[in-house]
Write a structure and sequence with these properties.
The structure is a single chain. The chain is α/β, with parallel strands linked by helices. The chain has one domain (about 10-240): Rossmann fold. Helices cover about 45% and strands about 15% of the residues. The protein contains eight helices and seven strands; from the N terminus they run E-H-E-H-E-H-E-H-E-H-E-H-H-H-E. The protein has a seven-stranded parallel sheet with strand order 3-2-1-4-5-6-7, with helices on both faces. Helix 1 (about 15-30) links the parallel strand 1 (about 10) and strand 2. The longest helix is centred in the middle third of the chain and has 29 residues, at about 105-130. Bound molecules: nicotinamide-adenine-dinucleotide.
Length: about 250
């Protein structure tokens, strides 16, 4: 049984979708959760939902693509709780286009959130983890990191997340901090719900288990990685995709 009582867990982009599933799971296992997003209303809704079943949650907006804001956010969490034990870098966006049609703005927006934002959050958070010689960072990459048509920006950023994860795992291992990446496959959230029916069917056909994933499928793996039971696992990249990439 996973018990996260007494652990302070930050999940970025947790107002909706995968992040919401993750933060709700961590709270249900006893963690003190910090719900963070750029969208205030979704933060408040998620906090209320967690509190309605007796979970512990505090909401605070943070745009992870702004380094000063990320630093200030981390310092505020540390001032309030004294530490961060679990950091899940989940906030992410897509701006899909074929490379020859992709604007520089679409490239930069995705880079700013999906890779720069992970670094901006990790840098101040791992300082406190290094000092107390414990902590767990889980970065959300994507099955698309291996390359996907129309996603040059997204794939490059998600591949970058893996390089960052493995480097941080090597730097922080002797300090008792684990750093892992998860590659979700095709998970039912606002990011995927908008795809045309034929694309949905094509994606589901690629999945060995024959269905799109749910946020909870990813959250279960994260809960394990965040727990004491996973404290000998670091620098790993784990596919949670129902066998989409085999
Ligand atoms: N849904 C999938 O199939 C899938 C597959 C692989 C990877 N992922 C990754 O999982 C993560 C979550 O995706 P999702 O499907 O839940 O997407 P989503 O669009 O449903 O939710 C993303 C959340 O991030 C927030 N966000 C966006 N920009 C932000 C910023 N600058 N700072 C803070 N928060 C911000 C949004 O407000 C939203 O609440 C992303 O990193 C995504 O790339 C998703």
């Amino acid at each position: 049984m996973i018990d996260l009582s007494g652990k302070v867990a930050v999940v970025t982009g947790s107002g909706r979708g995968l992040g919401k599933g993750i933060v709700m799971k961590l709270a249900s296992l006893g963690a003190e959760t910090i719900v963070s997003d750029i969208d205030d209303r979704s933060i408040q809704e998620t906090v209320q939902e967690i509190q309605s079943y007796g979970g512990k949650a505090f909401g605070k907006a943070c745009n992870v693509s702004q380094p000063d804001e990320a630093e200030e956010f981390v310092q505020e969490v540390i001032a309030r709780y004294g530490t961060i034990d679990i950091l899940v870098n989940n906030a992410g966006i897509n701006r899909d286009a074929m490379m020859h049609k992709m604007s520089v703005e679409e490239w930069q927006q995705v880079m700013n959130v999906n890779i720069n934002g992970v670094f901006y959050m990790m840098q101040p958070a791992v300082k406190v983890m290094r000092e107390k010689e414990s902590g767990s960072v889980i970065n959300i990459s994507s099955a698309s990191w291996q390359g996907n048509i129309g996603q040059a920006n997204y794939a490059a950023a998600k591949a970058g997340v893996i390089g960052l994860t493995k480097t941080a795992a090597k730097e922080l291992g002797k300090k008792g901090v684990t750093v892992n990446a998860i590659c979700p496959g095709f998970i039912e959230t606002d990011m995927t719900r908008g795809v045309p029916d034929h694309v949905w069917d094509m994606m589901v056909n690629k999945i060995a288990l024959g269905r799109a994933g749910q946020p909870e499928d990813v959250a279960n793996c994260i809960a394990f990685l965040a727990s004491e039971q996973a404290n000998y696992i670091t620098g790993e990249v784990i596919n949670v995709g129902g066998g989409m990439v085999l």
